[in-house]
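go over this chain:
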Amino acid sequence: MNDITVKHVETGKSMRIADTLLTNPATLTVDTKAGTVRRDTYNAINFFSGQFLTALPGNNTYKLTCSVGNVKIGWTDRWLV
């Protein structure tokens, strides 16, 4: 799974990672708050295009386009104090 596109349906924004070295057992981590892209321990920001996506309050729909593989999406609640 070396070419991944994620589109936030409600906003129309999308992000893409096209990294030929992203093969099993490599792990891709995109931190949208920090603006970082990592393949395992390596900086993979050069393979990123588009916008870092954020979730809106309420329901969010994401469209994933890629070859067969495993995808895990995590969410962290944040509050202003």
Q: What stands out?
A: Residues 1 and 67 are 5 Å apart (CA to CA).
